[in-house]
Design a protein that fits this description.
Blueprint: H1 19-34, H2 51-56, H3 60-63, H4 74-94, H5 113-136, H6 142-169
Helix pairs in contact: 1-5, 1-6, 4-5, 4-6
Length: 173
């Protein structure tokens, strides 16, 4: 297995993707996961089913419902996703110096309307910061590339968990 080398500028080599093309594709995937696909087609979500679009349809009481003893509430899923974005972006910028409280990211009990809207606003802000990092980052080391894939995969996973919870709760859209 060969070592990966950072991609910092567009290359004419046929085996490398220009940074701007990679960045554009990554931003499109992140946008689809969080705010919806801007095109008439989607890559991996149904139209209107992005994370922030989905959360906007959920009230605080539904977000606080316990689905089963083995799953988190929707509020906890949203908070954990926000926490992940914050930790990953800070870690990619600073080298993961701080120990993250992953268990604490799940400790969200019942939320009222104000707390629920605040949690969604914080998630939207965390997404904006992650998106800004992708837009401005110039060093695409193997660690940062892996983090980029993690941003999309982890967020899409929790979007699926939330949509499954809504189905289990039989909440109409």
């Amino acid at each position: 297995m060969t070592a990966l080398t950072p991609v910092t500028t567009a290359s004419t080599d046929s085996d490398q993707i220009p940074v701007d093309e990679f960045r554009g594709a990554l931003l499109a995937a992140l946008d689809e996961a969080f705010v919806g696909a801007p095109n008439p087609w989607t890559l991996f979500t149904d139209k209107g089913s992005s994370l922030l679009e989905t959360l906007a349809t959920i009230d605080a009481a539904t977000a606080s419902m316990v689905i089963s003893s083995r799953t988190a509430t929707i509020a906890a899923q949203a908070n954990h996703t926000r926490f992940y974005l914050d930790v990953l972006v800070a870690g990619l910028q600073d080298g993961f110096d701080e120990k993250a409280d992953w268990e604490g990211s799940w400790r969200i009990g019942e939320v009222n309307d104000e707390e629920w809207q605040d949690l969604i606003a914080h998630l939207r802000d965390s997404f904006s910061k992650a998106r800004a990092f992708v837009e401005t980052n110039t060093e695409w080391s193997p660690t940062i590339l892996a983090g980029a894939f993690g941003l999309v995969a982890h967020s899409a996973y929790h979007l699926g968990e939330i949509r499954q919870a809504l189905a289990a709760l039989q909440v109409p859209e």
